[in-house]
Amino acid sequence: MFDKKEFVSICSNLYQKQLIGGYGGNISVRDNDLLLITPTGVNKGILKEEDLLIVDFNGKVVEGKGEPSSEILMHFETYKKREDIKAIIHSHPPFCVSLSLSGTKLPDNILPETTIHLGTIAFVPYIPPGTMELAKGVSNGFEGGDAVIMGNHGVTVVGKNLLDAYNKIELVEETAKAYIFSKIIGKTNLLPEIDSKVLLDMYKKMR
User: Fold this and answer.
1) Tens-level pLDDT at each residue, the chain (207 residues)
2) Catalytic pick among 71, 83, 133, 174
3) How many whole angstroms separate alpha carbon 200 and alpha carbon 154?
4) DSSP string covering 74-130
5) Which of 20, 139, 151, 206 is deepest in the core (most CB within 10 A)?
6) Any idea which fold 4-206 has?
7) Domains of the chain, residue spans
8) Single pTM value for the model
């Protein structure tokens, strides 16, 4: 049902690439009405298969010991938003967090690859973590794209599977880094409007 080995491996890679911290962030995979999700308070870099939890959509732990992530409401609401979403990664990578702290929306018309794979990148102003308000705010952000930057918090991405989500968290952080560096240099060229529309159409067809 769930590939726990892949899940732990991807958590380790996220940690090694500084895309997720030991305590910060949370990850889940959906299979029908069950989620495989990271527990709260466990370092993602040394996570073991037996640490993982399986929960139902009522929040009940059906396998494993411990408590699921405090952001579990965000996972529930996001999965309800789109049927194609099968994996979620929420983390605090430094360049995305820098944008979140400054209240800066990451443009979706600067790099073709980013637009094709992420669509429109939403920005949700600060909402207290772990709340239903945040869960709904973030899930609504996935109407037009696969990444949401959360004010004074971090970023959440979705994918068709866990590897897809992993690739997207890398992509959004790489894009944030490039955008910030372009601002330091002093100039950010945007894609032509007609190209942006074509690329967004490609994203919609792929989704």
Assistant:
1) 899 999 999 999 999 999 998 888 999 999 999 999 999 989 999 999 999 999 999 999 999 999 999 999 999 999 999 999 999 999 999 999 999 999 999 998 999 999 999 999 999 999 999 999 999 999 999 999 999 999 999 999 999 999 999 999 999 999 999 999 999 999 999 999 999 999 999 999 998
2) 71
3) 24
4) HHHHHHHH-TT--EEEEE--HHHHHHHHHTPPPPSSS-HHHHHHHBS-EEE----TT
5) 20
6) L-fuculose-1-phosphate Aldolase (3.40.225)
7) 4-206
8) 0.96
